[in-house]
Structure formats: C-alpha cells, structure tokens
Task: structure prediction
Amino acid sequence: MDQAELLRRCRAGDELAWEVLVRNYQARICSIAYGYTGDPDEARDLAQDIFVRVYRKLDTCRDPERLLPWLIRIARNVCLDHLRRRKVRPPAQDIPADELVSLADPAPSPEQQWLTNTRKRLVIAAMQNLSKINREIILLKDMQGLPLDEIAGMLDLPLGTVKSRCSRARVELAKAVIALSGGGQDAEVAS
Result:
C-alpha cells in the first residue's frame, strides 16, 4: 500500500491502516525520542505521545510523499515540549549514565555486545555534553539521515549555517567522546 492510500485510510478511521503506519515508523520515532531524552523508558512514553499527536493531526499532512519529514517534525516538537516541561519540573532523582539499558543486537557474541554497548553509552553520554543545536543537528542529520535542507527548515536556519554547524557538531562530538574516554583506546569510537 502506498503512502497516499495509507494516509487516506488512516484519515477514514481504518484501524488496520493506522497499525501499519505505526509499525512502519515506530522504531524511527522511538529512536528520535531516545536521541532527545537519553532514556529508553522515557523515549517509549514519548513515542506514544508522538503517535497520539500524529493521529490528531493526520489531516494536516498534505503531501503523502513527505510523510516521514512531517512525522519527524512532529516528533521533534513533542520532544522539545517534553524537555521544556522537564526543565521546569526536573525529575526527583537523576539516573546514572551507567544504568542505561543496553541497545545491543542479540546476534553478536557477549564480548562484541559489551564492546558495542560501551561505545554506544560513550556516544550517548558525549551527545549530552554537546550544545543543544549541535545535538539536534547530529540527531537529525547523522542519526535520522535527513537532508540538510529539511534540517534548515525545521530549525529555521539558513542552509549554509546548517552545513557549517553540521561540521562543527561532528568535531564537538568527537572531542566529547575523546574527553569521556580519556583519550585512550576507546577514542576510536569517534571515527
């Protein structure tokens, strides 16, 4: 089923079409939420909020071919709203970074899983040390694969600014990873 038909059926209240849409984009939406929050449980909760908002705003998606950027824009807005509310009302207790849930694929060996998890936690921790704009650019460009012109539109910045910010964000992330790893062997994570 193509995007136009899927959207048409979702708007008509077809529950199966809605389930297909959610299944098609659920992992990506959770990934975006995780990129903003750094907490898997919080990301899953946010993903539900994102899909509720998507359902309510189905009529505002005019171009079915641009469904993914439209979904990402809504996900980004929900995440930013959530972070603003969290800043006003901080959590009662901070969660240490070493308690983050493992994201490893079950197929690799335990040693490979451990190494992969260590690297992921390092990058996630490094992402939290980036400036807000650089974290967003890394999330949207490198993790979600959005083109620079889409990112420029979302962030309401000129394309040239986004291009230069993208380069600076990668350098800042590499420095943060190296700093967190102590400049030792794990510094290869930045590459």
Observations:
- Residues 3-88 form a domain with the Rna Polymerase Sigma Factor; Chain: A fold (CATH 1.10.1740.10).
- The chain has eight helices and no strands.
